[in-house]
Design brief:
Length: about 750
Amino acid sequence: MVQVQDFLSWFNNYVRTAAAKNERRMVVLSGCESWAMSLLRSIDVIHAALSTETKQNFQTFSSQVQCLVYGDSAIFPANVQRKRYRDKLGSESDFIIFVDSEFTIDAFAGLSGTLKAGGILFLVIPSRDEKLEQSLFFKRFYSLLSKMPSHTIITESQASVLPLHFDVDNPVKLSATSTYPHGCITQEQYSAVIAIKKVLSGQRKRPLVLTADRGRGKSSALAIACAQLMKEHEQDEFDIVITAPDVQALSVFYRQLKQSLNCVEQQGNTITFGKVKLTFMAVDQLIRSPIKLNLLLVDEAAAIPVYLLEQLLRSYHRMVFSSTVHGYEGAGRGFTLKFKKVLDRLCPQWVNLHINQPIRWRENDPLEQLVFDACLLNAELPKLKTTLAPQPPTYGKGSSVEKAEVLNKSNEPVFKVISAKELVADEALLKQVFAILVTAHYQTKPSDLQLLLDNPQVQLTCLYSSKNNDAEMLAVALLMNEGKGNNVSDADIRAIKHSERRLRNHFLPQSLFSHCGFEQAFNYKYLRIMRIAVHPQIQQQGIGAQFIHYIELLAKEQGVDFIGASFGVNPELLSFWLNAGFSTARIGFTKDKASGEHSALLIKGLVVKSKQEQQSFKRNFYQSFDYLLLEEYRALTTELVFLLLRQNSKGDVSALSERDIANVQAFSRGERLYSSCCYSLYLWLKQDLLSETKCHSTEVLQQSLVLVARLIQKHDSDSVCQQFGLTGKKMLNNHIKNYVHLRLNTAIN
């Protein structure tokens, strides 16, 4: 067994080497936790962080040496909450101790970005052989780790720490001192400072998006630019506001700001320099009560939901968004994929600037390389040579299966199921799969890779351009087998019924059981489409519909009763799933934190009995939909409500009486007031939305949306006028009357 004194002597040399090379390293301690604790306690600064008697004074201690402890160990006192590790992004640490039985890779990757040059990340795991047997993900992780000599693995059973060659005679120097104006370390950082200042002096509505991997000096660039602006406007009434997911994420920003300025005063979250004020404000506060300011900075923007960023963009006109582009925040790709589309729409002249050169550690840092490789954060999306004939989009009712079959005959794609063992054995294939997932789906995280390789309920399916050896990958889907036959006991079901337990990996049956009252839910087999991603180069060309068709055939071969999906619902996505023959079973009552959208659960039955249940879910959903529109679904967009109502069944919509018909006709002739016959108009509109004669022109669609907002969503007249650009209540009522008149005449003709 490794002796404490041997370990301490080795470690002092090891950390000195890391500091000399300006790199970050990892030490794996493979053995029981008490053994690992005995080794780590021999290091004075870590001993102080791990001592329970100093834990209450940790904030004082950590101002000198920051040691982050993460995990679920009873022996190691964690100071990072398991679900709040993102709060540490943007801060810095000297040591990280990671002791997590589940090896939460999202937290591992995220926290690694806080480590400074010369810092050490300790990964404490049980027997390495046991880990390798249980986890393909860890087998790959360990294989990558073993090929990187800068990192070290120490096992409890080895006789002593093997001597290492410590190359301290050839240190790698960082540009730790300023060689550019304003205290900037690199040319890229200086260019970023100039670009930030230009947001204030240039034209309005030209936001700057500053992106980089971690450790490139984005937060420091924000602080340096702020310091320069505060000096230039010292005698002016001048307000800068900075926001972030959490004020703790701004520790680097504040430290750099105070370093760049002298004689600043801080009171709470406000720093004053002369007449200039710089204030931290939470995102929701900025949206709820817009204020007058000169410049708004958004740091760690990738960790803020895109819909909130859009609201900020609409409320403020001089803004800088700073973001990490890789996905260890868990929503990083949401910023890249979704928010930039928002910027193109609202501020087409926005400016993008990317910083490449690291500042906090050297180029090709060993820990950064390990995290990038292990989490496939650097997987590059290949450019396709395949070209496809564009397929026209479909709307409303109907299935896209026939279109998929036609596309199949003309392009002859190949559908494959690929096992986790095949992926681990073929690194190029694994990178290709994950590159499509990451680039095409904004919520893909490193943990999805872990799930893909280690969860026996997960299947990976891919769509290739042909059967040839040079075939290109067009699309990827992650599928989860749920329900019957997947280790669910009667005791589990009873616990779910009494709200005592939630099962992992059984989202569809659990949701149908708990929220839709389907008590037989676990008697059926489900295939949940967790992720479906088409190569961005060929999206909107019918590939997704075709892929769904193949997945459905696979499910039938495997004896599955239902296929389903859950996602942040919007009209575009909902249309895709409805056209594939799915129907809405449920829409969640609260907005998803990442997308800002309500989550929808859609289901499709594959056998006679499950098809009958699908119709029952659909009917039950629409029975309560109108009522819930007044409260839980009040924030749903009118376009989404219109699309949902178009899927209702005629037999489930109340029929119009002769009096109702007379009321509608009289209103269309201007003989009745809106309020005296609005209920008849409401019943008529629900029938009219289901009419097969409905025109899908953009103009008629927009006209019908006004009626949906007023009659079905029951928004007040002022809100509807503001939403659709109408001058007042008189114009609104005339619009409704003209639309009803048009539709009645269309029905007659």
